[in-house]
Amino acid sequence: MIIAVDGPAASGKGTIAKALAKHYGLPHLDTGLLYRAVGVSVTRADGDPGDAADALRGCAFDPALLDDPALKTEAAGKAASIVSAHPQVREALLERQRDFAMQDGGAVLDGRDIGTVIAPQAPAKLFVTASSEVRAQRRFRELDAMEQGVSFDSVLADILARDERDSGRSAAPLRQADDADLLDTSDLSIDAAVQRAISLVEARTADR
Ligand SMILES: Nc1ncnc2c1ncn2[C@@H]1O[C@H](COP(=O)(O)OP(=O)(O)O)[C@@H](O)[C@H]1O
Ligand SMILES: Nc1ccn([C@@H]2O[C@H](COP(=O)(O)OP(=O)(O)O)[C@@H](O)[C@H]2O)c(=O)n1
């Protein structure tokens, strides 16, 4: 069974995807980490994330980079959202994600285009969202524990800019697939959000 989990920054999609993977005993791929690795790799090579050739070179990153804590910073998130708008970059990362989705037994993937591009055949698709204020508050708490000098206002501004870039690009924009279930986590605890996600997946896969 393939479970596709998409949504904007800090909506809780990663938390839900990990919990679903544990519940169903499936492997999980956080596809945002791939784009973050490309963004960081371009920046470290003094390249320009907005330049398609530089961004494409960044796709040949060392797999060890995926474990680097630098990928969790907001700067990495911003660079990721810039490189991810290049169709060449999306193409370069496509096969790896599709192979993961198609492995025997199934998988859970989270990102922006899992239900629309990577695994449109997935029987269960969740589009996880939350208000921008709630998302900024969650991300602020994470970043504040990790980096110096982070302000709530700058995190909110970054999240809004990233939403606009991710939804406005022409290559695989962030959007809810027609057959995806919407899960708004603004007023849900993590436990409640995970329970709701399991119920939605059960309802979609009950007759399989
Ligand atoms: N329903 C929720 N209520 C409160 N905090 C949450 C909820 N879901 C996720 N979080 C917290 O918000 C932060 C971002 O969640 P995460 O799942 O990483 O988001 P995303 O993958 O969408 O960027 C994490 O610190 C996580 O623990
Ligand atoms: N499947 C995906 C996953 C991420 N991305 C891009 O990568 C950036 C970082 O993704 P992420 O999932 O790690 O970010 P958060 O939602 O955790 O903040 C996003 O803002 C998107 O621009 C994408 O284009 N497609």
Keywords:
208 residues, alpha/beta, five-stranded parallel β-sheet, binds adenosine-5'-diphosphate, binds cytidine-5'-diphosphate
What does the model show?
The relative contact order is 0.22. The protein starts with a strand and ends with a helix. The protein has one domain (2-202): Rossmann fold (3-Layer(aba) Sandwich). It is globular, with a radius of gyration of 16 Å. Helix 7 packs across helix 8. The chain contains nine helices and five strands. The model has no long low-confidence stretch (mean pLDDT 96). Strands 2-3-1-4-5 form a five-stranded parallel beta sheet, sandwiched between helices. It is α/β, with parallel strands linked by helices and 208 residues long. Bound molecules: adenosine-5'-diphosphate and cytidine-5'-diphosphate. The site of cytidine-5'-diphosphate has 16 residues, from helix 2, helix 4 and helix 8.
